[in-house]
Amino acid sequence: MKNRLLHFVVLITVQLGFAQSNFLWQGYFSYNEITDLSQSSTTIYAASENALFSKNTATGQIKTTNTIDGLSGQTISTLYHSETFNKTLVGYENGLMIVINEVDGSMLNVVDIINKQLPPNTKKINHFMEFEGIVYVSCDFGIVQFNLATLQFGDTYFIGANGAEISISQTTIYNGFIYASSNTGIRRAAITNKNLVDYNQWELIASGNWFCVSSFGPDLYAINSSGYVHKYDFNSNSFVGYKALAQPSLDMRATADYLIITTLNSIYVYNKQMELVRQINSNQITETNPNFTCATIIGDTIFIGTKEDGMITTSLSSAAIFENSTPIGPLRNNIFALQTTSDALWTVYGDYTVDYNPYGLDSYGISKYNASGWLNIPYEKVLGAKSISRITVNPANENEVYASSFFSGLLKIVDDEPTILYNQTNSGLESLTFLGPTYIDVRINGAAFDKSGNLWVTNSRIKNGLKVLKSTGQWQSYAMDNILNSAIDNSFGRMTIDKNGTKWLTTNRDGVIGFNESINKFKKITVGSDMGNLPISDARVVAVDTRNQLWIGTTKGLRILPNVGSFLSDDKLTTNPIIILEDNLAQELLYEQFITDIVVDGANNKWIGTADSGVFLVSPNGQVTKYHFTTSNSPLPSNVINDIDINSTTGEVFIATSKGLVSFKGLATAASDDLNNVFVYPNPVRPEYEGTIKIAGLLDKANIKITDIEGNLVFEKISEGGTIEWDTTAFGKYKVASGVYMIFISAQDGVETKVKKVMIIR
């Protein structure tokens, strides 16, 4: 099989975007975790964790569908394509069903199962089976009819003893009966019976726990939970043991010519005579040795779904050739951290719990995305680094990258190749020792480069918790036991370095620690009005904005240090909340919110990620919430935000969630060195546009004046970063009229100037 993990692959998938508040979103999803497959005569349809892709077997064209196109970010549990109606049904673990019209790509969200008055953990959709225009939907509570012509639900069947709810895993039609496998037996009823809502019409023909049931040719087969295949016997009206599988079955399905049974490590293909014509074992696919989830056949091609390695294809006739047909993307959807550069995006997947516990020690690789596509570096190449929690690119040399492992140390990557793993044996990094001298656990997390090219890193749960790898290659350590209440119990979060060279470190027990080696001082910001005024001592993120304010995100809200320069001049550092008016009541911005990240864009706006409430975009002073993106009003696949970063050149905002990576194509860019590349967007402004005008490519602290064609001033602002916004009002009082407006731009020193025009059409 071609080793798709080790080489750049040009992205050939079709990715569709849509406008959200007049901006474009983009999805960067992993399609490696296949949950189900379905097919037409010419196309294979695959469901990954929370996205879909299809491949035309004749043309080879691949199309992807994800939350950008309207899918839910919830976990997909099953998939079915109706060739008769040319519609694809997507079933979710929470009971949501989405119907995709393959003619135009339109989607219908069907929430009837979600809205049923049943326990939420019983609404999972397990299987779709179509018969005469009706889809029988197998759920964890019973069976529901769905009409493909009217797109309406029909009857619901609770077929357990005395009408109890039971989990139905699969249904099939055989000799005029509908058969249903469940965790309490196999039941059947006449498919023409008009009263199937009556549980008495369902006959129990096999007790026990059954995983699947499927008709194939003249016979009916079922597999119980222990992996024993049974065949239905007419004479005894019962299932008779047929053959034992080496492992429990995960999937059984029939095509016109073959019965396919999937276990974790094997796939069995039987012909109409029930002769085994092909057995595929996972160890035959030597490069990945995948775990299988399902399989099906179109023509002579077997399509295999896997747990982590996407969709693999092989032919019925060849036992040696395997190809991977998965759209290229990141290794996983649950991206824990990322960093962008001007032309690349790096992502890592290792993590730790809310209390900084890295166990059970994730073994994932690293991904990089640029114009050429995705480069996935597998775990086998990262020199044994587990639970990689951060990624840091050297701003002076973007080919030099450092990955922080919260168990194994610091991994250096040069020209996309891991070259050295710094740990307790070859660097100044140290292992925690409270578990004994022989136990090695080197917990590196937050990292940042200073202006001199030195890399500062945090080393948790040891005395000398702050380290620096100097540009000369030498290591130096700084003891923190005098500033931390208990150094060996402390874990560090993120880190940032301000314009004065002060390092700001977040901790889970002592708030924020500041350190500046030029004056050789540590200072602490923690709870208490005289100790810093944080809402809690567990701080997670720090960010310095263009006004030199330090924004601090904690597990219980937000605080602002008014000026980072106070570290050099003041003995005590005191932070303040942001007080806003909401419904004429004074409230604290993001009160009690668990803040996971804060990123400052080119207009000094703050992008704030939360642990369960999505993403907030607030104005430079925090008084205005410009956007609050969640799964309900945007393509975010999850409200759990792990990380955010912004490409300062393009303004693209990358948002890593627990269920996928998306980006928001804003235009807030970093400040430019001159005014040669100033541009205005949109231009012209048409009547249907409801957003703001962006003026980008600015110098920092440039003066912008906007006048009408007669020279009347309607707007004036000093830029903070590379972009400003104008809401097309005359100083916020009223919308300006249609016409051409002049934009006069001048640098702070007045040496450089630029004039632009924008047309507004009301």
Structure report:
It is a single chain. The chain is an all-beta fold and 762 residues long. Among the domains are: 29-261, YVTN repeat-like/Quinoprotein amine dehydrogenase (Methylamine Dehydrogenase, Chain H); 329-465, Methylamine Dehydrogenase, Chain H, CATH 2.130.10.10; 679-760, Outer membrane usher protein (Immunoglobulin-like). 1% of the residues lie in helices and 45% in strands. It is built from one helix and 65 strands. The strands form 17 sheets. It has a five-stranded antiparallel β-sheet, with no helix packed on it. It has a four-stranded antiparallel β-sheet with strand order 3-4-5-6, with no helix packed on it. Strand 4 (43-47) and strand 5 form a beta hairpin. The two termini are 58 Å apart.
Keywords:
Methylamine Dehydrogenase, Chain H; mainly beta; disordered N terminus; Immunoglobulin-like; 1 helix; 762 residues; Quinoprotein_ADH-like_sf; signal; 4-stranded antiparallel beta sheet; Por secretion system C-terminal sorting domain-containing protein; WD40/YVTN_repeat-like_dom_sf; 5-stranded antiparallel beta sheet
